[in-house]
Write a structure and sequence with these properties.
Blueprint lengths: L6 H11 L36 H11 L26 H9 L6 H9 L7 H9 L11 H10 L26 H5 L6 E3 L3 E2 L2 E7 L5 H14 L13 E5 L6 H12 L7 E4 L8 H8 L7 E5 L1 H4 L8 H18 L2 E7 L13 H5 L2 E7 L5 E8 L7 E13 L5 E9 L13 H15 L3 E2 L9 E4 H11 L8 H14 L4 E4 L5 E4 L2
Parallel strand pairs: 3-7, 3-8, 4-5, 4-6, 6-7
Antiparallel strand pairs: 1-2, 8-9, 9-10, 10-11, 12-13, 13-15, 14-15
Helix pairs in contact: 1-10, 1-12, 3-4, 3-6, 10-12, 14-15, 14-16, 15-16
Length: about 500
């Protein structure tokens, strides 16, 4: 399959990668000017450009604060001929140093400093200010002022370079009025209302949950443009970067094709070479073989960043920036396959910025009884309440050299359960949900809010009380607070339904 990545796209990748490189900026060596060309060589500008920003203005004023303006005019030089100490006749030097900055506020700063002297006259100041020659080879620069101030005991304040705010008008920002807003193109989907056509997404779950089987199944559906669990897909090329379980990918593809038929010849590609997402060259090389508009699965995130600390905001920030670079450069959807942490109820393993950066996320779970399900836990501008059961269907693909069966699995919906009942993973969430269910079994309030006719309901106040009563290991003064947090997590996870009545009171009921 020939990639349709253009040179412009690769250039875009290189530009995107700039922030990821930690190497120090170095100056390119300039070839020595030949004798024949020496007469045409231009003089080098040895003075750094200093932006007219508050930090730099404050720095100049700080240097002036240690210098008296009531000194002789001088010749505008830091050192007198034959002297090694700075000149005490420095008034003109200071004026020209400020003038060299070419700031709009420079004259005001220089005049305010000069006027403190009894020697000051408007005529003398104007003559000095206008007498500065910017084309003079050995012209005074702001560095001379700082060196003079340091000789008088000045300590430079710590400042950070801040880019200057351009004064000229710009068309960078555009105000969009209602008619403009109405013409914004609607979001383009890859898996309708779940995963966008471009961006960053994740599929995650515990080891053994079936997330890789399910991911391959989703990729196959997208490569064909077939519905996936009844959800519409929009066909495109799929690239699967296999970094975990490489040896088994052949069997998994064979099992999938045995269940669903052949994959499109140029629609589903697999990459098995090592790949590290935070290595700039790896990003460039991978981008070069990804057709524009693809879906790129990276399985797994951990294997693509082997030395990164997933709990570090800095390391996770570099991983996310690299992933964004990949999808921007290839105009693709990048899907990170990842694991849950030790506490599965807290979702994806690693720093919270990972989940926050996702445009879509699907969680894959397997309960104690072996029942598997997936749920949409995040879908920007989409629907995050989709969930379904699935099971793995075993296929015999042949026999090995010892005559034993070679087996793998494909994914199929679990039609034995029409409705999915998800259970929380955290021990305290399970405790809280069990308490709420017991209370609902004997509840006197029926059909509150949008719960439906005949559905038992529990007020939020009652729910807090019954959950707090179970938290016997918590300090008594913190049980209600903990109970509220657990109830919020159950509501957010879709384990119970909630709503407000006409009086503004909150109610809970079973799914």
């Amino acid at each position: 399959m020939k990639s349709n990545v253009t040179a412009d796209m690769l250039q875009r990748v290189s530009e995107e990668l700039a922030p990821l490189k930690n190497s120090n900026v170095s100056l390119k060596q300039v070839p020595a000017t030949s004798t024949a060309n020496a007469q045409h060589a231009q003089p080098l500008n040895t003075h750094a450009v200093v932006s007219e920003v508050p930090e730099q203005i404050a720095k100049v004023k700080s240097a002036l604060s240690v210098l008296s303006s009531d000194v002789p005019r001088g010749q505008g030089k830091l050192y007198e001929p034959g002297e090694t100490s700075v000149s005490e006749d420095y008034w003109l030097l200071v004026i020209w140093a400020i003038r060299s900055l070419n700031w709009t506020c420079g004259e005001e700063i220089a005049r305010a400093w000069s006027i403190q002297s009894g020697r000051y006259t408007d005529e003398g100041f104007e003559q000095a200010w206008n007498g500065f020659d910017p084309n003079k080879p050995d012209k005074v620069g702001i560095g001379s002022l700082y060196k003079l101030a340091k000789a008088h005991g000045w300590i430079a304040p710590a400042t950070e370079a801040v880019p200057a705010i351009p004064i000229a008008a710009s068309d960078r920002y555009k105000v969009m009025w209602p008619t403009d807003i109405a013409n914004i193109q609607p979001i383009q989907w890859r898996l309708k209302h779940v995963l966008p056509a471009t961006g960053l997404a994740a599929i995650y779950g515990a080891s053994g949950s079936g997330k890789t089987f399910m991911t391959v199944d989703l990729g196959a559906a997208i490569s064909h443009g077939n519905p996936w669990f009844g959800i519409k897909t929009y066909q495109t090329t799929v690239i699967y970067v296999v970094l975990e379980g490489e040896a088994g990918i052949r069997n998994r593809i064979q099992a999938l094709e045995k269940a669903q038929g052949p994959l499109p010849p140029n629609g589903f590609g697999v990459i098995t070479q090592p790949f590290e997402i935070v290595k700039p060259q790896d990003l460039v090389d991978l981008s070069a073989v990804i057709p524009s508009g693809s879906v790129v699965f990276i399985d797994t995130l951990n294997r693509s960043a082997p030395i990164a600390d997933e709990n570090s905001s800095r390391d996770m920030g570099q991983i996310l920036e690299a992933a964004k670079t990949l999808y921007r450069a290839t105009n693709s959807l990048v899907v990170l396959v990842h694991h849950t942490g030790k506490d599965a109820s807290r979702g994806m393993r690693g720093h919270s910025s990972l989940f926050a950066a996702m445009d879509g996320a699907i969680e894959v779970t397997r309960d104690a009884a072996g029942n598997r399900s997936w749920a949409v836990v995040k879908a920007k501008d989409g629907e995050d309440d989709k969930t379904a059961n699935f099971r793995l269907k075993r296929h015999v693909l042949g026999q090995d050299v010892d005559g034993e069966d070679i087996v793998s699995c494909s994914v199929e919906p679990d039609s034995s359960k029409v409705f999915v009942t998800r259970e929380p993973s955290g021990a305290k969430q399970k405790l809280a949900l069990a308490a709420i269910r017991r209370a609902l079994a004997s509840a006197n309030n029926i059909g509150k809010c949008t719960s439906g006719t005949g559905n038992p309901c529990l007020s939020v106040t009652e729910a807090i009380a019954v959950v707090a009563a179970e938290l016997t290991t918590e300090p008594a003064n913190k049980r209600n607070y903990k109970a509220k947090g657990l109830i919020d997590s159950l509501r957010g996870g879709g384990f119970v339904c909630s709503g407000l009545d006409a009086q503004g009171d909150g109610w809970l009921w079973k799914l």
